[in-house]
């Protein structure tokens, strides 16, 4: 009798699976969010805005496609293929009234069919929605932080072009423009632009459009922006609207210009000095006052004719503003805008605005607007509960959205069962109560 070969290949055993009719989901938190969106009548509004002409071959409506993108953005899902897979989740199918998951071609084709007209209609709808929310917030004064962001793309997407790109020089990109309401963290207005657009391209038209969004209850506006928006025509516009503003100065000869000024040392801090002077750039209608701050960055030892001498190395910042503050006050006021850069990163990295793209510019514009809408909705639904409002969306998503559950279809009613000892159970129930109240 031959011995068995101990080195024989391993063979795995087949394991059978049995299902009890219970469907799993990993996005349980979308259920109260969808209730909130239904209370807002978002689905009905989008359906009225983009009605679907039903044919025998029509399997998905426009509103189902648009809502799938919004819910995917909430859940941390980007790319058309991944959104198609996301739509196959049992809870998503139930919430959107789908018979099956939406395939990627249906998503792309549906968005492209809306075209430029669809992008404009969606933007106008969101303007009205934003006006109502700002009025509801009871604000009388508002701070608008304007900024732009570069979104690198790979491929031959329509409208993508080479421009300023600090992350990947020479790569094609889009260059969206955004305006935040600092008091609420909301994106008031945004333009989806080609990558070759300079930071301040169209800024005057953008400001005029943003001004139209603001309700009549807003009595005072403070506009703040970085050096990319240093523009005399913009200042004329802001002054004509009686807005206060603060914009960092950008000039080719700025450092030499500042070195020639008379500086006043600060009594409480000898390493800081300030100055102010009048300046009129080419094309400006009038002279404006610029205020600058000089800070000692470090002390450098220099050999001067055999003798070691220590000289200061300065760091400069210069501002153009119609606020009645000195350079130090403007500098402190300007540093507050750093939070808007954090919000931009949330819009891009956590809601994935600009990450989901097709080869069509207007379809990409619509996706961008839907992602920005998802960001705004995330901020608004957390606003009544300051603890959640202060958190980033990623934290909110990890706590309340991306959690597993079972869907039990019994007696013509779908019940969602979540783990009984879930760590944030009480907070989750509390938030659900806030959303559907």
Report on the architecture of this protein.
The chain has a domain at 32-226 and 337-436. It has 15 helices and 15 strands. The chain has a 9-stranded mixed beta sheet, with helices on both faces. A 3-stranded antiparallel beta sheet has the order 1-14-15, covered by helices on one side. Strands 3-5-4 form a 3-stranded antiparallel beta sheet, with no helix packed on it. Helix 2 (42-49) crosses helix 3. The chain has helices at 30-39, 42-49, 62-75, 80-86, 90-96, 104-136, 203-213, 232-240, 254-259, 327-335, 338-350, 361-382, 386-389, 393-401, 425-436, and strands spanning 23-25, 141-148, 151-152, 161-162, 172-174, 177-181, 186-191, 220-225, 244-248, 264-266, 269-279, 288-304, 307-321, 405-410, 413-418. The radius of gyration is 27 Å and the shape is elongated. With 437 residues, it is of the alpha+beta class. The longest helix has 33 residues, at 104-136.
Any key phrases for this structure?
alpha+beta, 9-stranded mixed β-sheet, 3-stranded antiparallel β-sheet, disordered N terminus, 437 residues, 40% helix
């Amino acid at each position: 009798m031959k011995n068995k070969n101990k080195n024989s290949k391993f063979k795995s055993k087949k394991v059978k699976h049995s299902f009890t009719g219970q469907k799993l989901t990993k996005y349980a938190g979308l259920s109260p969010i969808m209730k909130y969106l239904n209370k807002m009548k978002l689905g009905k509004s989008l359906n009225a805005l983009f009605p679907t002409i039903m044919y025998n071959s029509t399997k998905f409506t426009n509103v189902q496609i648009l809502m799938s993108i919004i819910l995917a953005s909430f859940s941390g899902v980007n790319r058309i293929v991944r959104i198609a897979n996301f739509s196959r989740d049992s809870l998503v199918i139930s919430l959107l009234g789908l018979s099956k998951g939406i395939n990627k071609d249906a998503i792309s084709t549906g968005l492209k069919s809306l075209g430029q007209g669809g992008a404009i209609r969606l933007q106008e709808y969101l303007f009205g929605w934003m006006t109502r929310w700002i009025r509801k917030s009871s604000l009388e004064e508002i701070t608008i932080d304007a900024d732009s962001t570069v979104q690198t793309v790979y491929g031959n997407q329509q409208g993508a072009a080479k421009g300023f790109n600090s992350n990947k020089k020479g790569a094609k990109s889009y260059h969206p423009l955004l305006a935040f309401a600092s008091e609420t963290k909301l994106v008031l207005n945004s333009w989806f632009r080609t990558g070759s657009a300079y930071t301040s391209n169209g800024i005057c038209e953008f400001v005029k459009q943003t001004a139209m969004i603001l309700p009549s209850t807003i009595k005072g506006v403070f506009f703040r922006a970085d050096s990319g928006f240093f523009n005399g025509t913009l200042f004329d516009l802001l002054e004509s609207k009686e807005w206060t503003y603060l914009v960092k100065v950008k000039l080719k000869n700025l450092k030499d210009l500042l070195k020639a000024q008379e500086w006043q040392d600060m009594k409480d801090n000898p390493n800081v000095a300030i100055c102010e002077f009048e300046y009129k750039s080419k094309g400006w209608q009038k002279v404006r006052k610029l205020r600058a701050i000089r800070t000692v960055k470090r002390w450098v030892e220099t050999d001067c004719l055999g003798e070691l001498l220590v000289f200061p190395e300065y760091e400069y910042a210069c501002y153009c503003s119609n606020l009645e503050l000195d350079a130090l006050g403007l500098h402190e006021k300007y540093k507050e805008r750093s939070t808007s850069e954090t919000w931009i990163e949330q819009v891009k990295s956590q809601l994935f605005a600009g990450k989901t793209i097709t080869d069509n510019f207007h379809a990409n514009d619509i996706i961008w607007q839907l992602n920005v809408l998802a960001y705004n909705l995330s901020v608004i639904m957390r606003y009544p509960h300051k603890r959640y409002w202060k958190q980033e969306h990623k934290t909110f998503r990890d706590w309340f959205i991306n959690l597993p559950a079972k869907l039990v279809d019994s007696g013509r009613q779908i019940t969602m069962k979540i783990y009984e000892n879930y760590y944030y159970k009480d907070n989750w129930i509390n938030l659900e109560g806030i959303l559907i109240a």
